């Protein structure tokens, strides 16, 4: 078994390297557009002549771009394409073939989720510089002779990176078994995408890695054991509240003031930008500042979401999450910005893939299950509960409890019902958790002691850590 993961590094290219990045990114965009043009032409011609073959697959498109290169570049004596990785062209062709395949699959109902449109041409504004190189014959290197903070790309050469590459380098190193023989490395690089993102150049390495060591994964539960299940309530006032079926709160992350403050900061930078004359040097500098500020905010948010989701999957092996119709809620304009900040969808996505890594069973409640309106004490259901009511007070049994905590407890208690259901609550739909939660259970039988140690340590840290980030 293996898992996919990614490592991102911020690049520090020289001026020449940056130019090459732009050439390669431009070439990728050009490739995509040239091929899309050919596909469209072929589709038009087929209206008149059914014998016309439309290039559609990977193979067709790569062949087409190679002959286009021969005719339009080599034939005309242009040689800029020699300075950049050949694979940048091929991977752009692969992108188009994927977009076309998704379009077909979506049209025939083979692809769940929102309808995919026919691919459109890429413009400089719609798609920033980006190109991908797959790791053919080990052409991508991390930490070269020039030092640990470097990477090597074909043709472009050695590029400095800002972060330490140690973790990835260790995963790529061959291991040694008991008899002193070399064993296969724990991970292999599949490809790298270099892209310009908010004023910086980022290299994102796609990596296929071995599963976590059984000690790091949760033990397999015996059939019917649902003790200690944890419900995860996502909200706007408190971002995440998680509680066990017994009613113990295990995680609470308050939606922080940080993002409100950064929103104000962004507005300030944007006002400064508005004052600058179009086309001026100062305006360009102001644009860069806005982008950098947004980038920093996004990084802070991502870091925080990783912390929360790690805490959940490392300490609990049975999670129930609301199946929030994020897209539907986004359409509600008033809530949209707050929701985007809360990043519900990202949390659900992170929990889904991390559940697979750690052997966690992740279940999702029905989209219409009234977790907030149900009393966790007696099960009575309220007809109405305004978003502003932070305290749940039951008319039947008189229970008074924090609204989100109540909801989390209800979700935790849903486990038995969800596990009995055929398909185990995996509902491929517009909800965020349209994965295969059932499939992601642990297959090995690791020891249990490790988990309790982590739980104890993490619970001590909970408040301190969230405060620091918030
Ligand atoms: Zn009650």
Give your account of this protein's structure.
By secondary structure, the protein is of the alpha+beta class. The protein folds into two domains: 1-210, no CATH class; 214-255 and 300-469, no CATH class. Helices cover 43% and strands 19% of the residues. The protein has helices at 15-48, 58-74, 86-107, 166-172, 257-275, 281-315, 326-331, 333-342, 344-358, 403-412, 415-420, 449-469, and strands at 2-12, 130-134, 141-144, 147-153, 157-161, 175-176, 182-183, 187-197, 200-210, 230-234, 238-244, 249-254, 318-321, 361-364, 391-393, 400-402. Strands 2-8-9-1-5-4-3 form a seven-stranded antiparallel sheet. The protein has a five-stranded mixed sheet with strand order 12-11-10-13-14. The longest helix is centred in the middle third of the chain and has 35 residues, at 281-315. The chain starts with a strand and ends with a helix. Residues 375, 377-378, 380, 394, 396-397, 399 line the site of zinc ion.
**Major pleated sheet:** 7 strands, antiparallel
How many domains make up the coordinates?
2
- What is the succession of H and E elements? EHHHEEEEHEEEEEEEHHEHHHEEEHHH
Strand order across the biggest sheet?
Answer: 2-8-9-1-5-4-3
What's the total helix number? Answer: 12
**Each distinct ligand:** zinc ion
Query: Which structural class do the helices and strands define?
Result: alpha+beta
Strand content: 15-25%
Low-pLDDT stretches: 425-470
Rg over CA atoms:
26 Å
State the main characteristics.
about 475 residues, alpha+beta, 12 helices, binds zinc ion
